[in-house]
Amino acid sequence: MQAVFKNIKGDRLIWAIAALLAILSFLPVYSAASNLAYKGAGGSTFTFFVKHFVHLVLGFAIMYGVHKIPYRYFKGLSLIMIPVVLALLGLTILQGKTIDGANASRWIQIPFVGMSFQTSTLAAVVLMVYVARYMSKIKDEIITFKASILPLWIPVFLVLILILPANFSTAAIMFLMVVMLVFLGGYPLRYLAVIIGSGILVLTLFILVAKAFPDAMPNRIDTWMGRIESFANPEDTEADYQIEKAKIAIATGGIQGVGPGKSMQKNFLPQSSSDFIFAIIIEEYGLVGGFVIMILYLWLLFRVVIVAQKSDTIFGKLLVLGVGLPIVFQALINMAVAVELFPVTGQTLPLISSGGTSIWMTCLAIGIILSVSAKREEIKEKEINEENPLEILSETI
Q1: Which residues contact 343 (CB under 8 A, 6 or more apart)?
Q2: CA torsion, points 275, 276, 280, 281, in degrees to nearest 10?
Q3: Looking at beta carbons, which pairs linking 194-203 to residues 24 or more positions away fall under 8 Å?
Q4: Residue 215 has pLDDT above 80, yes or no
Q5: How far apart (Å, rounded) are the C-alpha atoms in residues 288 and 43?
Q6: Which of the 8 DSSP states describes residue 267?
Q7: 147 CB neighbour count, 10 Å cutoff
């Protein structure tokens, strides 16, 4: 065990938070999986428990492997991965499949493995690393809008346009995170205003085209509009079924909850083990359980900011913020949807919701953050060793 801890580098508190979130996910996923187990997905709740365990083990293996990679290598990897991501997103649109009734063209089937992969989650991490690389590269240059169009905004908009038809919420969150990151990187506000206006224009044109040719993307625009209208009119008799069941679950949970495994709404709430798992957590563990989860994510946010602030390079700072802030932002959106503070988006609760791709890409992002903090620890150790050469000599003797 000591050998394992000796090989773990980086911010220990981030390791602890990730491990706590993973451990706390088992009982809610095991409980909520009954909805899938007995309503068409086959298997038993234990089968889904084991599946979730395997996903987490693989995720932490990814986290461990990635945190061992010097973070400067991610600059070059992002350049290589952008074309790969674009190709995968294009392939996903052409060959996407429906899972549990969810939209086709979000997942792609991995040949010979029998597994599905949501390519937009990989694209989100790669894109943020790519943007961090570009902003660090031009940190000492005079930024012009024209010069940034081809190397920065063309790849960004290509990725978002390929995600938008099947997953509006992910595309919108990615766009918001990119805008935030380039702002933190010193991109001029007047240029950002142009980019935001262009994004709104592209979205408007997309909606108009989808309305004009409904067969090209059946039901997508209607789904978006229905969710927004349901959120805007909560008294409507045709309010969203998912939100209604989530509200019942939260109201039933009260302060202390009904107890582990005793949720009733898990049997009626669609996506109870993924998109709406926060509602099940509150029903079974009450507001106390909900606050514990929220505090863990806010604690993660605090540590991400600390790691970014202590990084020795601009790229390290932007890289940590670029891949770290979306994790916390996604968690807050998931929780806000469950309590009807935000329209239904389909975003999972990182490291807690079931789903392999979401867990793996969250672990990938955390591994990158740990890689940056590990470099800072390495520099610190060198500084200490340089100050105490006699101690090193005595240890070798």
Answers
A1: 227, 228, 230, 231, 337
A2: 60
A3: 194/145, 195/153, 198/157, 199/157, 199/160, 199/175, 202/157, 202/161, 203/164
A4: no
A5: 32
A6: G
A7: 12
Beta partners for residue 97, in sequence order: 107
Joined together, the tokens standing for residue 206 give: 């997309």
Copy the structure tokens of residue 69. Answer: 């990679």
Tell whether the torsion through CA atoms of 176, 182, 185 and 187 is positive or negative.
negative
Long-range contacts of 156-159 (CB under 8 A, 24+ apart): 156/127, 156/131, 157/198, 157/199, 157/202, 158/86, 159/82, 159/85, 159/86, 159/89, 159/123, 159/127
At residue 11, what is the residue type? D
Residues 6+ positions from 209 with CB-CB distance below 8 Å: 216
Angle at 52 between CA 47 and CA 54, to 5 degrees: 95
Query: What is this structure's pTM?
Result: 0.88
Residue whose entry in the numeric block shows the structure tokens 């986290």: 63
pLDDT tens per residue, range 147-164: 999 999 999 999 999 988
Distance separating alpha carbons of residues 269 and 359, to the nearest angstrom = 22
In the chain, alpha helices (H): 2-7, 12-32, 34-37, 45-67, 73-95, 119-137, 145-148, 154-163, 168-184, 189-212, 220-232, 241-253, 277-310, 314-338, 356-387, 389-396
d(CA 310, CA 302): 12
CB 12: neighbour CB atoms within 10 A?
14
pLDDT in tens, 76-106: 999 999 999 999 998 888 875 544 444 456 7
d(CA 222, CA 209): 13
What single-letter amino acid sits at 32? A
- Work out the angle at residue 101's Cα, subtended by the Cα atoms of residues 98 and 105, and round it to the nearest 5 degrees: 30
**Cα gap 246→301, rounded to integer Å:** 26
Cα–Cα distance for residue pair 161/153, rounded to 1 Å: 12
- The dihedral of CA 141, 147, 150, 156: what is its sign? positive
Euclidean distance between CA atoms 277 and 93, whole angstroms: 28
Q: Is the distance from CB of 132 to CB of 368 less than 8 angstroms?
A: no
CB of 352 within 8 A of CB of 332?
no
Report the C-alpha gap between 30 and 26 in whole angstroms.
6
* Cα–Cα distance, 131 to 55 (Å, whole number): 28
